[in-house]
Specification:
Largest sheet: none
Number of domains: 1
Order of helices and strands: HHHHHHHHHHHHHHHHHH
Structural class: mainly alpha
Shape: globular
Number of helices: 18
Radius of gyration: 22 Å
Length: 416
């Protein structure tokens, strides 16, 4: 039974950081296993990003931030890729745009109502469980503000107490900040994309022949959103880029297959992967020439979504990257990626307040394996059952709607 359950969990095409879309009762779309691995690696980068936020104030106090300092190595060199958490979320959004839209595009008789009903369960149940975990840790381990650096991410973005009213607001995924588990800000946009999915798919299908122009417009809109501090304009176009990939998926696969038959194919693969990775953290790497906060740096940073898009394309079409992402370790990370994403901040923040952020190295030694274990347990106890319930709910809704539609219509007699 356990093997059968694991197989059922791995059938549906997965999504969002993490979240697998709920399919209709028709046959599921083929799974893109390399994207599972990419999602797992991105989730681990988010974990390391929050460890970086814990350590940075202490490292700067001890060694400054000049060239050659630990902070410089971690932020202004390609090593930043290991802790590129905000950039990894862009990868999540592109992945969601692709894999959530794919069943809607490929499956005949796709039930929008069934999808949305299942999707709500798939999102909300794990979110509520993560808030319950964060609240329990708040009660069990009191958070003394004197143990962390003033003005740091730990001090400013993580709750030291909470109320029922605050928890209810956070549980709705409708607010901008989430003190009990601050990674939930991204789930707010996953929810918005899920509701708007029919519109995204319709537009992507409509402009599929001019996909390059539509992609350019999406990138520009995202940049405008960043510059004007309009989150909806900043993030929703990133999902649309993934939806465009879903519409053009077979074309992309065929294009990459042709490229792989040409001379120097491996060089091309390495080039697109390296270029995408560097583009993903370009805003950090360009800081010596264009400091943070300048218009030039902002414009370069706005282009990081192109790196996220290129990385997803490379995961689909670059054989050497695909093989690595399909390895057992990456696939395991991909399987627990949503759960890992949801549990790691409450765990790391609790350790940091208990041990003090000056012991960031000890927090890392304990926190990384504890987050992985917590993600695995959360996956088995919460995420996997919620996924099954979401699939069952989607199927029931789709069946009910189909049954109602197929009922014979009663013809009323004409009045005399």
């Amino acid at each position: 039974m356990t093997q059968l359950a694991e197989r059922q969990d791995r059938i549906a095409v997965s999504s969002e950081l993490t979240v697998s879309p709920t399919t209709s009762p028709t046959s599921p779309s083929p799974r893109l296993t390399s994207l599972d691995g990419l999602r797992g690696v991105a989730a681990l980068a988010v974990v390391l990003h929050h460890l970086y936020l814990i350590a940075t104030p202490v490292l700067i106090q001890q060694d400054g931030s000049g060239i050659g300092s630990p902070d410089w190595w971690l932020s202004d060199t390609p090593l930043k890729l290991a802790t590129a958490g905000a950039e990894a979320v862009l990868v999540f959004f592109v992945l969601s745009g692709l894999v959530v839209a794919l069943p809607a595009i490929q499956q005949k008789g796709f039930s929008w109502a069934g999808f949305l009903g299942g999707r709500m369960i798939r999102l909300y149940l794990p979110v509520w469980a993560s808030l319950a975990l964060g609240t329990a840790l708040l009660w069990l381990v009191p958070r003394d503000p004197s143990t962390v650096t003033d003005g740091s991410w730990l001090a400013d973005s993580n709750a030291r107490s909470t109320t029922v009213g605050s928890l209810l607001h956070q549980a709705g995924l409708t607010q901008a900040s989430y003190e009990v588990n601050n990674v939930l800000w991204s789930l707010r946009w996953e929810l918005a994309f899920s509701v708007l999915l029919p519109l995204f798919v319709a537009i992507a299908v409509l402009v599929r022949r001019l996909w390059w122009l539509a992609a350019a417009v999406a990138v520009v809109l995202g940049a405008v959103g960043t510059q004007t501090d309009t989150p909806a304009l900043q993030y929703l176009p990133v999902f649309f880029l993934g939806t465009l990939l879903a519409v053009r998926l077979e074309v992309i696969r065929e294009w990459t297959r042709r490229r792989m038959r040409r001379p120097r194919a491996r060089l091309w693969s390495v080039g697109i992967v390296a270029g995408s990775l560097l583009m993903l953290v370009s805003g950090w790497l360009i800081r010596p020439l264009l400091p943070s906060g300048t218009l030039g740096n902002d414009l370069v940073t706005d282009g990081e979504v192109i790196g996220a898009l290129g990385l997803v394309v490379a995961a689909i079409g670059a054989p050497f990257l695909r093989r690595r992402l399909e390895s057992r370790g990456c696939q395991w990370l991909g399987r627990i990626s949503f759960s890992l994403y949801l549990v790691h901040v409450p765990i790391l923040a609790t350790l940091a307040f208990a041990l003090g952020d000056r012991r960031w190295w000890l927090i890392a030694v304990i926190g990384i394996p504890l987050s992985l274990l917590g993600g695995w347990l959360f996956h088995r106890a919460i995420e996997r059952p919620s996924h099954r319930l979401a699939q069952w709910t989607a199927g029931r809704i789709a069946t009910r709607i189909g049954h109602v539609r197929n009922l014979p219509r009663r013809v009323e007699p004409l009045e005399a």
